[in-house]
Design brief:
Elements: E1 3-7, E2 10-13, E3 18-25, E4 33-39, E5 45-51, E6 58-60, E7 68-73, E8 78-83, E9 92-99, E10 109-110, E11 114-119
Parallel strand pairs: 2-11
Antiparallel strand pairs: 1-3, 3-8, 4-5, 4-9, 5-6, 7-8, 9-10, 9-11
Length: 120
């Protein structure tokens, strides 16, 4: 069982940056792939990025490449999402997720989400 708690969301102006954190409780954090997803109002949940257990393999949605960076600190049981050059269309609730397998769709464990609002 893995419990996930996101933090770091907030209001930022377009062009600004935010760093989201996701703290995981439970055992064997490094055994899990960690992913970030987002859901904008009136839209479905969208894959953002994922990182494998060792932290040496990442995957990004095309629209986030070059602007967002996923990383993890297994000693702290935490995964991060550094978001730069933010745009109003990045406004969404951002969720972290965990699963033993790398992917863009199915994740077994989810956090409660953190709101990111980008003003124009």
């Amino acid at each position: 069982q893995v419990q996930l708690v996101e933090s770091g969301g907030g209001l930022v102006q377009a062009g600004g940056s935010l760093r989201l954190s996701c703290a995981a409780s439970g055992r064997h954090f490094s055994n899990y792939v960690m992913g970030w997803f987002r859901q904008a109002p009136g839209k479905g949940r969208e894959f953002v990025a994922a990182i494998n257990g060792k932290g040496d393999s990442t995957d990004y949605a095309d629209s986030m490449k070059g602007r967002f960076t996923i990383s993890r600190d297994n000693a702290k049981n935490t995964v991060y999402l550094q978001m730069n050059s933010l745009k109003p269309e990045d406004t969404a609730v951002y969720y972290c997720a965990a699963d033993p397998l790398m992917g863009r769709h199915y994740y077994n464990y989810w956090g409660q989400g953190t709101q990111v609002t980008v003003s124009s």
